[in-house]
Amino acid sequence: MFPVWILFTLMAAFMQSWRNAFQKQLSTTVDVYGVTLARFIFGFPFALIYLTVLYHQHPIQTATTFTSKFWVYIAIAGLSQILATILMVLLFKQKNYAIGVGLAKSEAILAAIVAVIF
């Protein structure tokens, strides 16, 4: 049987490329912050649908509590993602599409390096 993860990986790569192309096109008519806001607003319903499906497939059995340290890490990660998107859109506006996409694609490697360090 064909592994399903391969299909999901190919679909994710295609969707990221498609999203970046639309962001590049949108950045010609909308300011940097508008493009960034559009990216996160567009993705929000998909995130809610994903979380709803996960919850219905595997309901939470025990109460989960999070520490304040956890929420600080979440806030830092969210703000870092927003800042990185703003910087990528600025590169698109300067006609540096290849550099912007190259930096965006290197994020997994950079995250792995930072994880090893910490």
What's the short story on this structure?
Helices cover 81% and strands 0% of the residues. It has helices spanning 4-26, 32-57, 68-93, 97-105, 107-117. The mean pLDDT is 84.
Write a structural description.
The protein has 118 residues and is mostly helical. The longest helix is centred in the middle third of the chain and has 26 residues. The protein starts with a helix and ends with a helix.
Taking pLDDT < 50 over at least 5 consecutive residues as the criterion, the unreliable ranges are none
Helix-strand sequence: HHHHH
Number of helices: 5
End-to-end Cα distance, whole Å, is: 39 Å
SSE topology:
Layout: H1 4-26, H2 32-57, H3 68-93, H4 97-105, H5 107-117
Annotation keywords:
118 residues, mainly alpha, globular
